Amino acid sequence: MDRDPAQCTSTPPDPHSSVVTLRVNGKPHTLTIDNRTVLLDVLREELDLVGSRKGCDHGQCGACTVLVDGRRANGCLLLAVSLDGSEITTIEGLAGDGDDLHPLQRAFLDRDAFQCGYCTPGQICSAIGALSEAAAGHPSHVTDPATPSGQPVPLNRDEIRERLSGNLCRCGAYPHIVEAVEDVMS
To answer: If 0-12 CB within 10 Å is exposed, 13-18 middle and 19+ buried, where does residue 57 land?
Structure first.
């Protein structure tokens, strides 16, 4: 069987890379990335969205927390190729196209819920995810067992602390972070 010479000159695709489309902060990005690249590195190195921080690089500190299809996730643990077609929201995308801050960003400022600010983007994204999870009826370790299944979980300080326990703050701004979350609940 004869082959078309034009087909013979093309190079085979790199078996270690994939083409993925991520919708980041409402905008589609089609990228060719190494299959081993984590979402955090794509955000920071390919898309220049440096708000999400690289802290421990092991999913233990929460500095890299972003929202993936509305759910909070550690960007340092997710292979970007597994997220093809997903909606990713970073701290940069919370305010939308306008100049107004997201209510939780505003509450963090009003409550002085940060000191050095390194963990703040992850704290805010995690808090937004935690609020959504509670509203959807997802219990936490401290949720009262009498809470009806599938009903919104009322958030008190213990619930907020438990739900945000995966995000570490070296400066110890935890009391103000809890107050900021309480502010957006009311």
So the answer is: middle
By the 8 A CB rule, do 66 and 52 touch?
Answer: yes
Give the integer Cα–Cα distance in Å for 178 and 172: 12
Helical segments of 29-80, H only: 39-41
For the segment 23-70, what is each residue's pLDDT rounded down to a tens digit? 999 999 999 999 999 999 999 999 999 999 999 999 999 999 999 999
For residues 11-30, average pLDDT: 89
- Helix-helix angle 103-110:120-135, to 10 degrees: 120
The CA distance from 71 to 126, in Å, is 9
* pTM of the full structure: 0.89
Which tokens sit at 128?
């937004």
DSSP state of 60: S
Instruction: Return the beta strands (E) in 25-145 as ranges.
Output: 27-34, 65-68, 71-74, 87-89
Cα–Cα distance, 26 to 48 (Å, whole number)? 15
d(CA 89, CA 183): 22
CA 58/CA 45 separation, integer angstroms: 18
* 3-class state of residue 74 by DSSP: strand
8 A C-beta contact, residue 181 and residue 133: no
